[in-house]
């Protein structure tokens, strides 16, 4: 009996040692969670929250399976999500922001410098997308464009210029992006140009925007608000990004998107690694995956995003409604986001006093 007890004890100790060793090996291999508990890792992505089902199919689930990781989403608009990073309430690994908001985060030291050798697909992007905020920071994963959408059944003649927004026939039928939206700074830029300035001139812009007030029925915060307004014939024209065209056309088949003669504005959405992440290498791997031809094409075909990867080839039907091709992309305009961010506080104040209150 004593011999049996000694043998059983030895076997128990051996089994415990083996199991402990397996658990340690699993954690050391990086397959544990952030808390060190066995299972998949967690990568926290801060994003807008649109097209989540399609993104899970095209981007998240394949990456999760290939890398034994679970992707957690933190969703909201640019300003709210950047504010959470500022407060450091909890750790976010990768953040997706419009170019102007990314510039703010970089200025405030909120992002890690990336290792571009770990993101080789950057070299397959259009030049405009490779380093919109400098080579130390994240690329743009999609290139959008902002122009004008209008109802052809309402307009007496085709809309060809931003100056057409001031046409008397659009009185009470115009929607304009609020100054705090991604497209808001474009309004300041094109208004100053319509007023005769050769470069962005805030004084001329605000003077011209006062003249526009009778035409404006809404200063919109979300482009999704426009579909119902076009459907109800409340709005006949609006400066907006082309990705909403399909939704608006479902509501109003007479809606069409045009590139004004002054040119459409480039809308670059970026991906950056947040300061303090413990998953920097995995974050860079995730960014590289999103930039791959496979993912970029899948998202383009599903009309989730216009491709930033220049290797993506689309048919005319697949490219419909997207910002696509070197000819289109080479003609896009931009604004100096450093100048915009430096002046935004005073512009918002003037917008509220001189534009909204009129």
TrEMBL record:
Signal peptide annotation: 1-25
Q: Which UniProt keywords apply?
A: Signal
**One Pfam match:** SBP_bac_8
Alphabetized InterPro entries for the sequence: SBP, Sperm_putr-bd
Q: Which GO terms describe its cellular component?
A: outer membrane-bounded periplasmic space
Tell me one GO biological process term. thiamine transport
Could you state a single Gene Ontology molecular function term?
thiamine binding
Transmembrane stretches in the record are: none
Superkingdom in the source lineage: Bacteria
Name the chain's protein.
ABC transporter substrate-binding protein
Q: What is the lineage of its organism?
A: Bacteria, Bacillati, Bacillota, Bacilli, Bacillales
